[in-house]
Amino acid sequence: MADEKRVAESSTLAPPPAKALSHKNPVRRVTLIVIAICAALFVYGIAANRYTPYTAQGLVEAYLVKIAPEVGGSVIDVGVDTDQRVEAGTVLFRIDPDPYALAVRRAEVQLEAVGQSIGASTAAVASAEAKLAEAIAKRENSREQAARTLELVKKGVYPEARRAQAQSILDSSEAVVVQAEAEIEKARQALGPTGASNPQIRDAMAVLEQANLDLQRTAILAPSEGGVTSLSLAIGQLLAKGETAMTYIDTREVWIEAAFPENSLENIAVGQPADIVLDILPGRVVTGRVVALGYGVGNRSVDLRTGLPAPRTQSGWVRPPQLMPVRIKLDQDVRPLRFGAQTNTMIYTSDNAIMNAIGYIRMRLVALLTYV
Questions:
Q1: Model confidence over 299-326: pLDDT tens digits?
Q2: Whose CA is closest to 369, among 258, 275, 283?
Q3: How far, in Å, CA of 204 to CA of 116, rounded?
Q4: How many Å apart are CA 165 and CA 171, to the nearest integer?
Q5: 3-state SS class at 307
Q6: Distance between CA atoms of residues 337 and 326, nearest Å
């Protein structure tokens, strides 16, 4: 009896099997679940970085145009306000046109004067041609007279002295012809080409065209559809030629400049589809396509005081990733957009249905969070 009792007591005090304890230890179960989740997230992160790369560092970009007058002068009218949206051809501001209108009138007068001068030169050419014709006629007459005189001298009718006299008259008439030819050449050189090809006419017309162009440029027009920013103009303000008066955002072409880590670029290629969430359009997901990948970024700075390179310092086991720009063109015209607006971007680099489905759901969740 005593032995049986001791056996029963020993069996009662024996520890339970390990399998039973594992089912009853909640800490171990939670630990395993957490480890499994972390491992799954780690694997997903690696796969997502290749198949559905994502970045929250994206901006809406557009072309910025520095609006500056091509002529200087006093501002007489400002037709827009800062942050105003305008259409192509809208008058942004005007420069006082009076000095340029006066320049046009002066150029017109100069053109008329050149025309009159050319008319006088044409008359001089005509006069020189008439004198040449007269000189030629006199020379021919002198030749005939000299021939008769020489014949009569040979026959003894005239004395030998008449031969020298006739030759002198002939030489004089030849000299008059040569002088007349020189005068007509001089007049023609002074006149130059006739009509619109005349250099004086062309120069005067160019001056007039420039004056008219400067007059037109006193009205500064919007180059395209877009928006006005950084406007700092007032009536009466004096602007120099080429002085920036405002910044203009050209909204005809808008794109997304998204910065992706280097290790995401391996599978990204031009033409791949992308989902974009814009903070300015909460709850919406717009689509686009990759149009360009950046070839490089700046990674060094220079000390302004010494002019020497100032390498970046970093510490820790893992260095921060280098981000490279990827340009994405939207598939549709999305309004309104603002230059510099933040975006979240995901690119689908393959036809992997599982990863694409997870990415699709993820971007819709991100879109919902933009309401917050």
A1: 667 666 776 776 666 666 777 788 899 9
A2: 283
A3: 12
A4: 10
A5: coil
A6: 19
